């Protein structure tokens, strides 16, 4: 069975974006980016990969699941097919497939059912939970691995890593931690 991996950048105080949904406070340069490009190139948007001349092998992920606001973050730059190298599922009950492009699937299916279906597929690659916080909270019981790129910033408010009023208790064990000169620390946790 495949794993669901929540691979996301977060501030020291646990926010994945500003209150408006912006993530421009996160460090976009530094040695952590070099590691990201080398180890997780499939997590970079298609336009960035094209600009760098990279064709990812999708060694870790072949499928990405995200909420509408995460998907729509690229709209101001005209990006409506952010990860063309992956199978893309956008969870939204309010938006239509016509608002996306390429092979993006806008799913009205319950996110928990969608994630369970994707995890049951035969594949050695993980399913990437890209964001956002509401979706992460909704599917928390199916998250098998957390990879948190903790940036040395405080936001004070914004979209939390898990945004929900629901109480979810899950234990994880630390697999690895890496500190970068940029100040970013990448922590990987496996569900206990």
From TrEMBL:
Q: What is this protein called?
A: Deaminase
One Gene Ontology MF term: 5-amino-6-(5-phosphoribosylamino)uracil reductase activity
Taxonomically, which superkingdom? Bacteria
Q: Which InterPro entries match?
A: DHFR-like_dom_sf, RibDG_C, Riboflavin_Biosynth_HTPR
Segments passing through the bilayer: none
- According to its UniProt entry, this protein's organism is Chondromyces crocatus
Query: Which processes are annotated in GO (biological process)?
Result: riboflavin biosynthetic process
**Boundaries of every Bacterial bifunctional deaminase-reductase C-terminal domain copy:** 4-185
Q: What Pfam families would the database entry show?
A: RibD_C
